[in-house]
Amino acid sequence: MLKNKVVKQAQTLYTEASTVNERRIIVLAGDREAGYALAEQIIDGCGIPWEDTTAVSSYAGFPCETVNRQETSALLGQTNTGVIYDLHTAFSPDGIGRATGGIDGAGLGIFLMPDVDQWAETRSDIDQYLAVPPFDINDVTGHFREHLIKTLQRHRGICIISLERESVVKDGQTHPAPRYVTENNKKRPSGTTFPDQAYQYCQTNDQRQALQAIESLTTAPTAVSLESNRGRGKSAVAGIGAACLATMGYNIVVTAPAYQNARPVFEHASKLLERLGVETCSNNETKITTSSGTIRFFDLLPRLKSWDSSVGNPPRLITPAVNVRVR
Question: Does the global pTM surpass 0.70?
């Protein structure tokens, strides 16, 4: 039975992903309604919580947070164990990137799409998206869909299920070799001033290295840039650093396209402040106030959009930075 075969394959892939802390993707190619039903069965069969799952689709039947193609920017700054992306009608290259980037390490993505043998020649809303003036929809070819299909077919870690043929076209397993695990040293580095609890809160050595770099903000007029792939803990370490700085009397401003993108920073800051025994008060979730400093969200984009270019360039917000990679 197709359901049992697909769920079993998904469980195998999800277990492999969990073992090496990598993402995996399952493509359900074929009938749209059958894909919806199987996607739900995969999430349930793998034991992925629906509250830790996001769907990008016009279908409103998934028991989880669901956004449409125009709202995929809401996925920035957050990751989920499960992500469902519906490519049957409206989708975009940016949306695909945001959805796959929003899958946690050890997480599972599910792509719903038409049969791969026919999809390249099938018209959909993406053609209107790709039709840039002076060209119209009739000038759009199926090259992008062909490229996407070939990428899915040859990329490791992607399983393809044909719903029409009721078969596993590609199992997606990578059979990774055992990995050497380095010691996770939670001790506070020498010469640092942030409290021990802050460094113990960090989950990786790279996060502790990044937190140590954030400490440099207290001793020099500089900036720190944290760069890494999605889901590696940038928001967490930013929240840890913000909490430490607030307890030292600094007022921290956090900006993002929307508060939803910055929420993890505030969540981790609140958790650390609680561990430190620091009392906080707040009238809303966008501001944390301590007896010595604050952390608040600042919606920067409307101000930049309304900037009057006739009076000169907008103020420089970031000076030359220390670039720290968090793996």
Answer: no
